[in-house]
Amino acid sequence: MTPLITESVGRNLWALARRLAWLSGDGRLWVTPFLFRTDKFSKPGPNSIGQRDRAAVFHDFMVRCRVLLGLSMMQCHNYFLEAMVYCDQFDLPESAWKRECAILWRRVTRNVYYAAVVSANWIVAGEGLGITGDNRYDQPVADGVPLDVWVREHYNADGMGYMNGDGGSFFNA
To answer: What is the tens place of the pLDDT at every residue in 117-148?
Structure first.
């Protein structure tokens, strides 16, 4: 997973300063475009959960574009869980007992976040076509195009993951 680099564009709202990429366990490459707008974790208080912010951004992207990506809502949630598991392996304490405590705590909190997303996300998810109807989010992304257009240009219709827009893969770009 690539580093998450964002800049604040409003209260609890960030835009990606560079694209975010992740190769999921099923071999699919997921790329969230430059300038994609996200609230990271939709929750009151500070909107940062450290390394897990990357998982939250992917989840926002997948849920917002799920129909275009060929995903069900539950698949989006399961990718979110997988991405959190991946992110949780970083920044662990060196001391063995502190590491074990951190791993246990991350497992517990990860399950709480996942349960909250599965139970409440349907309320605010939208239609999954890349357009929310909220001007804070519906801003042009990379290449100055709307998110739905960018997704259609960069993802295969067969749901197999990211393509660079001219038929080649991300790795050949």
So the answer is: 888 776 666 677 777 777 777 888 887 888 88
Residue 151 near residue 142, CB atoms below 8 Å: no
Quote the CA–CA distance of 142 and 95 in Å, as a whole number: 43
- List the end-to-end C-alpha distance of the chain, in Å, as a whole number: 17
Residue 6 has pLDDT above 60, yes or no: yes
Return the closest-CA partner of residue 79 out of 96, 55, 95. 55
**DSSP code of residue 71:** -
pTM of the predicted protein model: 0.83
All structural domains of the chain with their residue ranges: 6-172
- R_g of the chain, CA atoms, integer Å: 16
What kind and span of H or E run contains 80? helix 73-87
Average pLDDT in the chain: 81
The dihedral over CA atoms of 125, 31, 111, 52, expressed in degrees to the nearest 10, equals -110
Contacts of 171 (CB under 8 A, 6+ apart): 29
Q: 156-172 pLDDT, tens per residue?
A: 766 667 776 554 444 43
Which structure tokens are listed for 159? 């749901």
